[in-house]
From TrEMBL:
<dbReference type="GO" id="GO:0009251">
    <property type="term" value="P:glucan catabolic process"/>
</dbReference>
<feature type="region of interest" description="Disordered">
    <location>
        <begin position="25"/>
        <end position="50"/>
    </location>
</feature>
<feature type="domain" description="Fibronectin type III-like">
    <location>
        <begin position="713"/>
        <end position="782"/>
    </location>
</feature>
<dbReference type="InterPro" id="IPR017853">
    <property type="entry name" value="GH"/>
</dbReference>
<dbReference type="GO" id="GO:0008422">
    <property type="term" value="F:beta-glucosidase activity"/>
</dbReference>
<dbReference type="Pfam" id="PF01915">
    <property type="entry name" value="Glyco_hydro_3_C"/>
</dbReference>
<protein>
    <recommendedName>
        <fullName>Probable beta-glucosidase G</fullName>
        <ecNumber>3.2.1.21</ecNumber>
    </recommendedName>
</protein>
<dbReference type="Pfam" id="PF00933">
    <property type="entry name" value="Glyco_hydro_3"/>
</dbReference>
<keyword id="KW-0624">Polysaccharide degradation</keyword>
<dbReference type="GO" id="GO:0005576">
    <property type="term" value="C:extracellular region"/>
</dbReference>
<dbReference type="InterPro" id="IPR002772">
    <property type="entry name" value="Glyco_hydro_3_C"/>
</dbReference>
<dbReference type="InterPro" id="IPR036962">
    <property type="entry name" value="Glyco_hydro_3_N_sf"/>
</dbReference>
<dbReference type="Pfam" id="PF14310">
    <property type="entry name" value="Fn3-like"/>
</dbReference>
<comment type="function">
    <text>Beta-glucosidases are one of a number of cellulolytic enzymes involved in the degradation of cellulosic biomass. Catalyzes the last step releasing glucose from the inhibitory cellobiose.</text>
</comment>
<dbReference type="InterPro" id="IPR036881">
    <property type="entry name" value="Glyco_hydro_3_C_sf"/>
</dbReference>
<keyword id="KW-0325">Glycoprotein</keyword>
<dbReference type="InterPro" id="IPR050288">
    <property type="entry name" value="Cellulose_deg_GH3"/>
</dbReference>
Length: 793
């Protein structure tokens, strides 16, 4: 607290300084480090670095030419959102041929729009551990955004939240609580969207790990979002080592993927609003990561006009009066005209804002069609909506759903999964069926009752929820299959014990569908199932010796009461699968495909297994969240504390068996060829031409299918770095070996980049490749690593 108070003062002083003097202080160039990085972190907090376009020189030229022709007012208007049909709307500059620019939610598809798909959630996609599917999902999603006329998609979620707490309301929108895997996911998600010519907005920057107190709530009326609250948003107090090691890494990968935009988060960082925090925006993002695009605020994330234009480029919702969070930047031109803000800053913001537009060719080859929806009012144009869905998208959604299903428990032999030629099935749970009012009605607000969300869960709530065109429920798909296979089906979409007892006891297998809701605006209170779900499970387990549990959940839920029960013959997590839910689960239940999902999180036994107090309930007027566990979240925490989880990170069963063999490590140099934009992260050993992302070693191993049927396995590489107080192991590679036939072997190669073997040195302010012994272990989960080898640096 002491430190954060000091920092706030320092920032306040810096802000005052920036106002008083010409803001363009010369930056100290240090040519021994990439990007002319300076030793003194504070030296480049102000002014915000000017973009030079990086590898987008043509786009930079176009953007700076056109911005050069704009008046102060035009530049200011371009970067300030106004009301319109989209969630965010830049008015463009008509005089110069810059059209209106449309920004739309969200990470599971365009929202709120009809005529699009509801994609699987981020956590679901992560559970596939399949980089091709991560890319494909975003590619298809990008096509739908583009074809609806959207320029800028407000997706993907990288590390913010990363999943510091299993309770965080938006974890399901993101991916892994691991910086390496999360970064790979971010990279694929950004390139997928942008290969469809829609710009990505990687979010939420940075250390946004809880919903509780995310807004400046009025403490007397905590549900009101007020313009000027009595309360500050939650402050994430994170040290420099943790910031670099855990939270910043995925954003570095997003920059490398060429993410056009970033979104600053609602929380404060060390006592400063994220959207006007010069250290994270001007230093970490624009200097260290050399980000060339523009940062836009989360909706209502701007609280101070002048301070925020010194750090970010776009104010949303800007001057749109329909939001309760205040209007900001309507006076931006005045601030420039009276010398409070340097014109260069606004010029740079406008250039940065237009860079992705030109780079993606939205001005010429890839002009999005006209927007015909109205995202504010019933969602439809007077003559209906534009359906942009394609059949192949449906199949990709289905495939991600199937490939993500993570089998956690399974009986040997006749029981459990896959279903063994049953004659009679009992299906149990409200999660089997449709929502009562149909799917066009989103669960949060917009005139639909909260209770509407009482059928199957395919997505979480809030701005990350996309309206599905239909939902193939588990009941729809299982019934269809049962009819084809001549199976009798009875179902109970109720928690009535008698009914459940009755139908379960008469069936060969009782399939219980469990659900757990998570949403933006609210953290989960615990990881327990609701009472109706608990009593449903109790009743089924009491009456059937072949209970199969399928879960539609955002993350871990407490299943300790049933996990060891011998009547529970199988447990699988199907996450939030999107519109094809039933079609995704049937191939696994009936054995057409072998499950191949792996846990993208650690499945603990109780909430107490996880680091304590990771959701701060500090109800003071300026609530603080101390990130005192540092980098030790999820499996890093369980490993360090020696806690036995129920199921470990990376774990998932199959219908076949695999073995890994022949681990080899080799020095192998390959220049980085994946950077669409290059970061300027400082590292020891920079020689003027090498990169922190050059490959320096490879680890290879062989995966063999030792079972009797085809299946896919995820080979995982964990590295133990030398040094005191390092994590027991850290994920540094994964590869999904797909469609391996019985008896077949395949070699996998993990590329290790310099960064993957480096640590952040807080004293030197640089990445270093430490000397010492490294252990490389390969297997099929974070706790089943039969192969290992070492190498010394
Ligand atoms: C906070 O809410 C209380 C109760 O509704 C109200 O009286 C008060 O004016 C509010 N304060 C602010 C700053 O909006
Ligand atoms: C927060 O403050 C700590 C202590 O002064 C500092 O080390 C760290 O870099 C700051 N973190 C961020 C993200 O600003
Ligand atoms: C500059 O303009 C802003 C916005 O109108 C105003 O709030 C501020 O007081 C002005 N500053 C000076 C130094 O005139
Ligand atoms: C589902 O929600 C609808 C609409 O609110 C309500 O009428 C219905 O009773 C609910 N059904 C269940 C099973 O909760
Ligand atoms: C368990 O089964 C017994 C015998 O059928 C019944 O009396 C009891 O109510 C059941 N309990 C639950 C939780 O279903
Ligand atoms: C398992 O199910 C059988 C019915 O098949 C029941 O008699 C038994 O009590 C159940 N066992 C448990 C531990 O609930
Ligand atoms: C994981 O590896 C073990 C051997 O280490 C093997 O028995 C098992 O079949 C593998 N599990 C899966 C799901 O592939």
């Amino acid at each position: 607290m002491q430190l954060s108070a000091l920092l706030t003062t320092a920032v306040a002083l810096a802000v005052a300084n920036a106002a008083a003097v010409d803001t363009h202080l010369p930056r100290q160039e240090d040519t021994s480090k990439p990007g002319g990085y300076t030793e003194d972190n504070n030296a480049d907090i102000y002014p915000s670095p000017m973009a030079n376009g990086g590898k987008w020189s043509d786009a930079y030229e176009k953007a700076s030419n056109i911005v050069g022709q704009m008046s102060v007012k035009e530049k200011a208007e371009l970067i300030t959102s106004v009301s319109g049909p989209c969630v965010g709307n830049s008015p463009g500059v008509e005089r110069l041929g810059i059209p209106k620019i449309c920004l739309m939610d969200g990470p599971t598809g365009p929202r709120p729009v009809h005529g699009v798909s509801q994609f699987p959630a981020g956590v679901t996609t992560a559970a596939t551990w399949d980089r091709d599917l991560m890319y494909k999902r975003s590619k298809h999603m990008g096509q739908e955004f583009f074809d609806q006329g959207v320029n800028i998609a407000l997706a993907p979620v990288a590390s913010g939240p990363i999943g510091r707490s299993p309770l965080a309301g938006r974890n399901w929108e993101g991916s892994f609580p691991d910086p390496y895997a999360n970064g790979r996911y971010a990279y694929e998600s950004v390139t997928g969207l942008q290969d469809s010519h829609v710009a990505a907005t990687t979010k939420h920057f940075i250390a946004y790990e809880q919903e509780t107190f995310r807004h400046p709530y009025n403490t007397s009326a905590p549900d009101d979002i007020v313009e000027v609250g009595e309360q500050q948003p939650i402050s994430s107090n994170v040290d420099d080592y943790t910031t670099h090691t855990l939270y910043l890494g995925p954003f570095a990968e997003a920059v490398r993927a060429g993410s056009g935009y970033m979104m600053c988060s609602y929380n404060e960082i060390n006592g400063t609003h994220a959207c006007n925090d010069p250290y994270t925006q001007n230093h970490l993002l624009k200097t260290e990561l050399n980000f060339q695009g523009a940062t836009q605020s989360d909706w209502g994330g701007v609280h101070l006009s002048k301070e925020s234009i010194e750090t970010i480029e776009v104010s949303t919702p800007g001057t749109d009066p329909s939001y309760k969070m205040g209007t900001f930047w309507s006076d931006l031109d005045e601030l420039v005209n009276n010398g409070t803000v340097a014109e260069d800053r606004v010029t740079d913001a406008a250039i940065r804002f237009l860079l992705p537009y030109y780079w993606l060719g939205q001005d010429e080859e890839h002009v999005p069609p006209e927007v015909i929806f109205n995202g504010n009012d019933g969602y439809d144009a007077p003559d209906g909506y534009r359906n942009v869905r394609k059949p192949e998208t449906r199949e990709t959604i289905r495939m991600i759903g199937t490939e993500s299903i993570t089998l956690l428990k399974n009986a040997e032999g006749e029981m459990g999964l896959p279903l063994n030629k049953p004659q009679r099935l009992a299906l149990i749970g409200s999660d089997l069926g449709d929502n009562m009012i149909g799917d066009g009605c989103p669960p949060n607000g917009n005139g639909c009752p909260e209770g509407n969300f009482n059928g199957t869960l395919t997505d979480g709530g809030g701005s990350g929820y996309a309206i599905p065109p239909y939902t193939v429920t588990p009941l729809d798909a299982i019934k269809k299959r049962a009819i084809e296979d001549g199976i009798e089906v009875s179902y109970a979409m109720t928690d009535d014990n008698e009914v459940i007892n009755e139908i379960s006891s008469r069936a060969d297998a009782a399939l219980v569908f469990i659900k757990n809701h998570a949403t933006e605006e609210e953290d989960r209170h615990d990881i327990d199932l609701t009472q109706d779900q608990i009593s449903m499970l109790d009743a089924a387990v009491n009456a059937s010796s072949n209970v199969i549990i399928v879960m539609h959940v955002p993350g871990v839920v407490n299943i300790e009461k049933w996990a060891d029960n011998e009547n529970v013959t199988a447990i699988a997590s199907a996450w939030y699968p999107g519109q094809e839910s039933g079609n995704a689960v049937v191939p696994i239940l009936f054995g057409d495909e072998s499950p191949s999902g792996k846990l993208p999180i650690t499945w603990g036994k109780t909430l107490d297994d996880y680091p304590p107090n990771t959701i701060s309930h500090d109800d003071s007027s300026s609530p603080q969240a101390e990130f005192s566990e540092g980098v030790y979240i999820d499996y890093r925490w369980f490993d360090k504390q020696g806690i036995e989880p129920r199921y470990e990170f990376g774990f998932g069963l199959s219908y076949t068996t695999f073995e890994c063999s022949d681990i080899k490590i080799a020095d192998n140099y390959k220049k980085d060829d994946k950077a669409i934009q290059e970061t300027a992260e400082p590292f020891e050993g920079f020689d003027g031409s090498n990169s922190l992302y050059d490959m320096i070693k490879t680890v290879t191993a062989t995966v063999t299918n030792t079972g009797e049927r085809e299946g896919s396995e995820v080979a995982q590489l964990y590295v133990t770095l030398p040094g005191e107080d390092m994590p027991v192991r850290e994920l540094k590679g994964f590869e999904k070996v797909k469609g391996l036939k019985a008896g077949e072997s395949r070699e996998v190669t993990f590329d290790l980049r310099l960064k993957d073997l480096s640590v952040w040195d807080v004293v030197k302010g640089t990445w270093v490749y430490p000397e010492g012994e490294y252990t490389f272990a390969v297997g099929n989960s974070s706790r089943n690593l039969p192969l290992s080898t070492t190498a010394t640096h």
